[in-house]
Amino acid sequence: MTPTVGDLLSTMVRRCPVTFKPFRIFVVGVGFFSLCFLMTYIGGRFSAKRPGDSPFTVRAEVLGGQESRGVLRKISDTLEVIMKRMDALSKLGNATDNHRLEELSSALDRIQPVGLVERIQAIAQNMSDMAVRVEQILQRSIATNRAKDGAFGQCEIPKDPRYPDCTSKMDWMRARWTSDPCYAFYGVDGSDCSFLIYLSEVEWFCPPLVWRNQTTTPTLKPLARKQAVFQSDIGALLEQVGTGKESLSFMKRRIRRLAAQWASAARRLDEKLRNRWRDKKKILVHIGFLTEESGDVFSPKVLKGGPLGEMVQWADIVTALHVLGHNVKISVSLKELHGFLGVPPGRGSCPLTGALPFDLIYTDYHGLQQMKQHMGLSLRKHKCHIRVIDTFGTEPAYNHEEYATLHGYRTNWGYWNLHGQQYMTMFPHTPDNSFMGFVAEELNETERLYIQRNKVNNMAVVYGKDASMWKVSKDKEKFLAVLNHYMEIHGTVYYETQRPPEVPAFVKNHGLLPQQELQQLLRKAKVFIGFGFPYEGPAPLEAIANGCIFLQPKFNPARSSLNNEFFRGKPTSRKVSSQHPYAEQYIGKPHVITIDFNNSAEFDAAIHDIMKINVEPFLPYEYTCEGMLERVHAYIQNQDFCSPEVPFPPVNSSEALLERFFIREPNSRILSWASSIISFPSWPPLTALRLLTSLQGQSCVEACQSKGLTCEPAFYRFINIKEAFKALGFQCEVVESEMNHLFPAFSTEHGECSLQVDPLLFSCAGSSAKHQRLCPCRDHRDGQVALCKECL
């Protein structure tokens, strides 16, 4: 049996002659050193196990126990050597140096405390007892660990076909677990046990471990529903928006300026809904493009003529959500995003644990990328709660990652595999997406009378705050010269000290104006003229709302991602026919005149017509505060991309029954839903469905618009059946199913009826010269194209 440290020290003291005092002092030093070393080491081992430590440190402590026994053994060996040397030195008593040693002993006797040897013996005995106790603890630790190893199966990788990636993920964790501190945050310590626990409880690549059942988190009961109540006080909202950026200051000024209009709109909508129950939602608004991490190129340009359209829309979105009575949190930094979501510390490799603390998250493409980097696998789990504010729209062919990669639709912005209607646009140009919009200020009767009395018939304001938009080309020089012949031209181009050289001398430039002064200028002007850029901004609607006629250029050929640098890389193939297609298609004459600016005769005639006509201020209902509240309310209460859809067609439905789902409208080739035969849960309700076929080379967007309808992608799953072809009169030689964003469609060349395989590819956009597409259309409310007549 190996002697303990205490045994060795006691033996050394007994062997040491009383008269040989120098070695007694030496023993004191050795004993004191050993005691300090042992206490420090044991204390360190026990203090390392704190209450907050990871549950995965058991294995490390067992290894520590082996290490501590090794250290004790080394101390024992060292003391044994010392004892042997002391036995040899004790024989020097009869040597010639004995006299010198006696003198040294006499000197040491004078400084030796009383009872020193007894104290050393007591210390040695205590150390011997402590060593025995440590040994007992270590033995128990070994036994406990062996018992657990037996229970855990030595943390072997489970063989479960339901978790095919478990083995590869274990290999990855072994090689890379130190690559992100978040793994250690969740208790990973480099052992296989910790890897398995993490992969089964934090992530979901390995099956649940039987011996971890006691740590299973209990299923949380859903929180009680709360009713949303309209609110007009914007104080809490302004605090949420924050400070420190000029972009945020701009948004707060806009919120304050429109507060009264939002409040009156809320009252009108409340009366319209007749106190209907509205669920109160917890909503996070993360404005990614304003974060420092995304570069935030917008804030520094707010007061220098930079684009404001995005900030206008975000200010209106947060106001609408707040006024509708929801619990809104606003984030404009990664730090705030981490805090709101509960992101673990690290580099974003680990998912969130627990339920998402929000019902909805509104963000943009920058914010979506940031959430991907910092939420890990949780983004896939929670992405159904996300709404992406997307100015120009994202079509399904670009959104579907696999399809976009295989068929050349992949861009820097698409491929997120979201439901198409989770993208929300500034204008209703892409029915595959949801139309979010913004608001323009409404005029009261006093302001309308002011405009009527003070319009200057020969005054034009040019759309363009940045000097680069005024760079003179030959074509631009021509139409400016014609316009100057009939009208006084005003500009609002930003400059610091000197007049921008790009602005012609005959233009009266006011510089960058505050919103109120710009409105006063527009209320006097007769025409608001666009140069062709920027595309689809809010300014033309504001000009029309203030009584201006918007004169804009027609693009021939239409501009798109295929032929225009600005649109290249955007996840849409939409063809833009003018500077502002919404104004051209949804408002039109006399408020909007779209012409070829390269045709000087046509331009000259348009100016003559403008000077002859008078127009009233006009604002589409969907761009009023009430219109936006109505639309956003309908989305929040009805759009659900998280709950599984009820399968369609119903199980065991006969072919004869399916054919009766569609009935032909009188004197028309359009089919509607036979709601008297079957009722099926859907929003929009199926009573709004109108089924028709496109022409060859025509998209469903165009086919529905040609009938005064709107394409509704939510209805695709109800018409993606072979019986729909038969109801429309097609004779299917072959019925096939395929991943193709044009399907369901009929091939006139081969008589093939093609069904869609992947619901993410249901798309109103897209056309083919070889196919007639099946198009699900719907009606819409007056002035509100986003909602069907029964959608509210």
From TrEMBL:
Signal peptide: none annotated. Pathway: Protein modification; protein glycosylation. The chain crosses the membrane at residues 23-42. Residues 182-777 form the Glycosyltransferase family 18 catalytic domain. Keywords: Glycoprotein, Glycosyltransferase, Golgi apparatus, Membrane, Signal-anchor, Transferase, Transmembrane, Transmembrane helix. One of its GO terms (cellular component) is Golgi membrane. This is alpha-1,6-mannosyl-glycoprotein 6-beta-N-acetylglucosaminyltransferase. It comes from Oryzias latipes (Japanese rice fish).
